[in-house]
Amino acid sequence: MIRTLAIEGYRSLRDLTVELGPLTVVTGANGSGKSSLYRALRLLAGAARNGTVAALAREGGLARTRWAGPPARSGPVAIRLGFSGDDYGYAIDLGLPPPSRTSKFGNDPEIKREALWSGPLLRPSMLLADRDGPLISIRNGRGRLEPALEAVSPFDSMLSEYADAPLIKLRERIRRWRFYDHLRTDADAPARRATIGTRTPILGHDGADLAAALRTIVEIGDHDALDAAIDAGFPGSRIEIAVDEEDGVMRLALRQPGLERPLGAAELSDGTLRYLLWAAALLTPRPPELLVLNEPETSLHPDLLGPLAGLIATAAARGQVVVVTHSAALTAALDADAHTIELVKEEGETRVAGLGRFEGPAWKWPTR
């Protein structure tokens, strides 16, 4: 489980270190920095797939994503991202590329430092892998850091490009993190269409496989929890999954009291469809180590926030969950089970409400 998340120099997150729990709710007013924290988590996850540099470039590079005010400390321009738990910690430091007259990739930052260590806090004696520029050092069987034979490119993460047991283990753990952000429910949303059905233990990011994901929960997951979630959201209702025997196409429908026929996915309201999407995502038969939800309350009727909170609490009992929300009602519904982080913005900088600058969890960055 991630216990500490640290971000420095990214957008309004000048120097933010926060503690995470099994269920963490990140809340705050519009513009307080919630979306930046969510993006920072996605950038960290991108290191395991070598996507952090490209993701920052798509946002405009360091010139448009780095903190625009006074730096948190003296030194070179940097965006630093890191996390740690009881077993492992990881940090990545991205900086400006050297001036070039030939390269056309001016928005690509360079990876200046990376570190993987054992335990919650970075200490030299606990380093398992250390990257300084293109050079990587790996702790050998005798407990010493020794240079690796291969160097890495400035745009490649050692986490994704180097084959060493601790790096591989952490890489695979991070690759199993799961993010859901604004699942579509408009008239043309993929979740409203019939699709070929195949076992789907993990709902896709666009929800196109909703019918198959729900049917998978019925067959190999916690179908009682699914039935309870549907009844909590829509009392007396149940889902039905029809399958065309010839082509294997699956169609989702919701049977509700008082109606002579079930409503197909194309007929459901945005809020109803979104709640079914969250049920499929949160009751997954293959829970991730970390599940991050961005504004799951979007388009839901207030009466559905309580049942949604119940689904989130169920997911948090099987893996770590982070919920980013501006809904006071959802925050209140989760309050008994959650560690709540309220973000505020002071002079352009995102801070944690009620915490002084030096009152967060302990953290150390690798130095350039």
TrEMBL record:
Keywords: DNA damage, SOS response. Coiled coil: none annotated. It holds the Pfam family AAA_21. It comes from the Bacteria. GO terms for molecular function: ATP binding; ATP hydrolysis activity. The keyword DNA damage applies. The keyword 4Fe-4S does not apply. One of its GO terms (biological process) is double-strand break repair. Residues 23-330 form the ATPase AAA-type core domain. PANTHER family: DNA REPLICATION AND REPAIR PROTEIN RECF (PTHR32182), SLR1056 PROTEIN (PTHR32182:SF25). This is ATPase. It comes from Catenuloplanes atrovinosus.
